[in-house]
Design a protein that fits this description.
mainly alpha; MetI-like fold; 15 helices; Sulph_transpt2; transmembrane; Sulfate transport system permease protein CysW; cell inner membrane
Length: about 280
């Protein structure tokens, strides 16, 4: 009990730092969040719901969900495979693979989107071939998915790699020695050991996928009702001085972020030990 008491006490000027941190976070996070919801409902619930029922708004919501529904599972599969390879095996190019996984963290999302335009745009490397075969990637759903997948690439892998390195490969080796197949070993041993960290990474990946703006903006073409996701829809409405509509759409994104935050906190509270292992490195 005394240990808990001593750990709760903060030495010296630490309380002032805590108060200052809370004050800064209140100004930088809570106040803008409150403003979003306040302005979204400034003309009443009816105007708020009407803004969300607009055909362009519904199309943006639908497109955002579709892009996330495709991108997140792809990144989950890639994250598990990459983490498995890095944590369980030694091979040439391992450092290069880790660097590639971290690359989206270090480059601007705008550049991530520009890459796909340079490859698949009308004047890009494959633009002529795509036009000849009546295929469209940029300014269409495939481009949005590619841009989102690239930006959210590290979230699942980076949650799993430290955890799988910490767990080692003794259990998998024992199962293989006893005759289990590789797939059975993965389903019965590896996956249960990483399930909460995997879910945590998927949550973060999903939140980023739904809120991505820079990369998606480059490849979208800003075609209303067709290639505008929710973040782009907010920008379009704001530029058109439709503030209630813009903040109503923004409140949806903020709500998704808050739901993600709650789920993330629940995971951290229920499975703190496993999740802390994934952040040791």
């Amino acid at each position: 009990m005394s240990g808990n008491t001593s750990s709760a006490r903060l030495p010296g000027a630490a309380p002032l730092l805590v108060i200052a941190s809370v004050a800064v976070m209140g100004v930088l996070v809570i106040l803008p969040l409150w403003t979003v919801f306040h302005d979204a409902f400034s003309k009443g619930l009816e105007a708020y719901l009407a803004a969300l029922k607009e055909p362009d708004a519904l199309a943006a919501i639908r497109l955002t969900l579709i892009v996330a529904a495709i991108s997140v599972p792809l990144n989950a599969v890639f994250g598990v495979a990459a983490a498995w390879a890095v944590a369980k095996f030694e091979f040439k190019g391992k450092s290069l693979l880790l660097t590639v996984i971290d690359l989206p963290f270090s480059i601007s999302p705008v550049i991530s989107g520009l890459v796909w335009v340079l490859l698949f745009g009308a004047q890009g490397w494959f633009g002529e071939w795509l036009a000849d075969h009546d295929l469209k990637i940029v300014f269409a759903l495939p481009g949005l998915v590619l841009a989102t997948v690239l930006v959210t690439l590290p979230f699942v892998a980076r949650e799993l790699i430290p955890l799988m390195q910490e767990q080692g490969s003794d259990q998998e080796a024992a199962a293989l020695t006893l005759g289990a197949s590789g797939f059975t070993t993965f389903l019965r041993i590896t996956l249960p050991n990483i399930r909460w960290a995997l879910l945590y990474g998927v949550l973060l990946c999903n939140a980023r996928a739904m809120g991505e703006f820079g990369a998606v903006s480059v490849v979208s073409g800003h075609i209303r009702g067709q290639t505008t996701t929710l973040p782009l829809h907010v920008e379009v409405l704001y530029n058109d001085y439709d503030f209630v509509g813009a903040f109503a759409a923004a409140s949806l994104l903020a709500s998704l972020g808050l739901v993600t935050l709650v789920l993330k906190s629940v995971l951290e509270w229920r499975h703190a030990g496993e999740l802390s292992q994934s952040r040791k490195h």
